[in-house]
Amino acid sequence: MWYSNAEQFKGLNGYVINGVWYPRVTKILDVKAKPALDNFLREMENYASAEDVKNRSAAEGSLVHDIIEKLMVGSIVEVPPEIKPAVETFQRFNEERKIVFQPDFVERQILSLQHRYAGTVDALALVDGKFGVLDIKTSTGFYPEYNLQTAAYVSALQEFEVKRNFMLPRDIETRWILRINQHRICNRCGATLREKGGRSKVRNGKNRSGSCPDENHEWGSMVGDVELREFPYFYKDIKAFMAAKILWEWENDYWLRQIKYI
User: Fold this and answer.
1) If you average pLDDT over residues 232-239, what whole number do you get?
2) Number of domains the chain contains
3) DSSP H helical ranges for 212-252
4) 90 by DSSP, 3-state: which?
5) d(CA 259, CA 262)
């Protein structure tokens, strides 16, 4: 991507914290190939359509994040009907898992002083007696870049000075991805229909033996789909993130020199 000036580069790629500019974790990870995103772009009619679906999907995902995070710190909120199946399924799920969000660390901006990057964690949480980073995703699956993103947060929050500055209640031990989604299921063949960002996507039906032709699906009511996975082994992921950061710095060398980051 080309930038018209240094200020545009800084604004799109990082945060200014206490007068110092830090690149964002998610922008650093733009350097990594994302096969799922490539497949999505190939399926769209044109770039404008793809951008529209991406932006609308991001807005819907942000709404789910916002509602879940407010509920988990005890706020009383009205759940919009369009995301109610996902939210209600999460509430039932959490009655069993009993995830405890730390109110001071929900949507909290964090930074690495040692490696010079920053990001925003969805939450720090206590799950099954362990304290760690919890990231919420509104996707149909788990993707490798999620591991790199959460590893970057874990690494930053394990730095001594960062721990002291943030006054963490205890050391970061692990990380989780909390995937929250919703879809319809065909009553005849079990295919799933996901409606997000103004786009409908049928999965499994065409590849499953005995699946319905597209026009013959009988879609049921919208149902939630919630899954929590722990990724306790993060050493290699931290190394991979640092490698991605080096590549991102190489790719953006000109602008990073302009802003005196390098």
Assistant:
1) 96
2) 1
3) 235-251
4) helix
5) 8
